[in-house]
Design brief:
148 residues; N-utilizing Substance Protein B Homolog, Chain A; globular; single chain; 76% helix; mainly alpha
């Protein structure tokens, strides 16, 4: 399996545990990397994803809420919410991954971990965000959220 895909899966697992069990994400990531080591590049990518998602979570969640109003964030499946966060961080904040790659990877995660309707939902929300990418990048630019 490709290194970045493994890192995204690991990130999703960490964020899932963070959301449901309320375990601190970075120590959870470190523990999982000890239990299931991956290539250094993958571990660094997962670290960047988890840290970045935590830093920008409230801004990303506001965008998700705005672009998926029929699914309130607290009623959205934990898997779907975190897949959206990963992709949004990748293509709107981090900027290293092309939009189409981020969306394709998110849809693949949704196929593997989500419900039957998750891939279509994730693709729809991210497709809409991609159409607004330049405006949203400007909105998300700047200092990360203060994590309290």
């Amino acid at each position: 399996m490709r290194t970045r895909r493994r890192a995204r899966r690991l990130t999703l697992e960490v964020l899932y545990e963070y959301d449901l069990a309320e375990h601190d994400a970075l120590p959870t990531l470190a523990r999982r990397l000890t239990e299931q080591p991956i290539e250094t590049a993958g571990a660094e990518f997962a670290q960047r994803l988890v840290s970045g998602i935590l830093d920008y979570q409230s801004r990303m969640d506001a965008i998700i809420s705005r672009y998926a109003p029929e699914w309130p964030l607290d009623q959205m499946a934990v898997i779907d919410r975190n897949i959206l966060r990963i992709a949004i961080f990748e293509f709107l904040i981090d900027g290293e991954t092309p939009i189409k790659v981020s969306i394709n990877e998110a849809v693949e995660l949704a196929k593997t971990y989500g419900s039957d309707s998750a891939p279509r939902f994730v693709n729809g929300v991210l497709g809409t965000l991609a159409d607004e990418a330049e405006k949203l990048k400007a909105e998300l630019a700047g200092e990360p959220d203060l994590v309290v």
